Amino acid sequence: MKKLLALTVLLLIVFAGLIAQRNFLLHPEQKQAIISSQTQANTPTPPPTSPVADEVSIPRSISIPAIGVNAPLETVAMDSQGRMDVPHDANDAAWYSLGYRPGEKGSAVIDGHLDTVTGAPAVFWNIKNLQPGNTITVTDLKGKNYTFTVIKVANFPYDQVPMQQLFASNDKRRLHLITCGGTWDQGTHNYQQRTVVYSEML
Fold first, then answer.
1. What is the number of alpha carbons within 13 Å of residue 134 lying toward its C-beta?
2. 46 lies in a domain?
């Protein structure tokens, strides 16, 4: 589709079952969200570019009226350990640039912090309160809006997040949001759950 070298690497790692041993999104203190930490020597040929790919620009902001979110989008890739990075500013969200762009056919992923290192609410503090039918609008650098409708909100143990579903669905124009949830474990410096919002362009 686009920039799919990293995405196909991610898929191979998912199929290898390595994600079960990884955290996805750590507390802001760690500034990291885990996708994978290894690469594969052989990767399949990337599929053809989406027909809308040339029309979809880089996303610059996200708006979620139901929970009062209107935030800039940072562009992130992987950190030095091969894990999806997170926004550097707790009031921003972050788009995973090695995957799909919001508005393309495929699953775009945006993450954000639940809270700050002091425990104050961050950008995705209230996404757990979203309901089916709520809307999420992403605006790209060209000023074009892409509006998604929330389908469901789900919580997963931190080591059981369905990575393939989140990052590699390509049947529809999807947007997945993810943040921390559940109880903060001081010993491991990690939240015990991840909250995922599934949405689609309808």
1. 21
2. no
Higher-confidence position of 95 and 46 = 95
CB atoms within 10 A of CB 22: 19
Q: How far apart are CA 48 and CA 50, in angstroms?
A: 6
Strand-pairing partners, residue 107, are: 174
- Give SS3 for 175: strand
Q: What is the pLDDT of residues 29-59, one digit of tens each?
A: 443 333 332 222 222 233 334 444 458 999 9
What is the CA 176 to chain-centroid distance, rounded? 6
Q: In the Cβ-directed half-sphere of 75, how many Cα atoms lie within 13 Å? A: 12
The total number of structural domains in the chain stands at 1
| 175-198: average pLDDT | 89
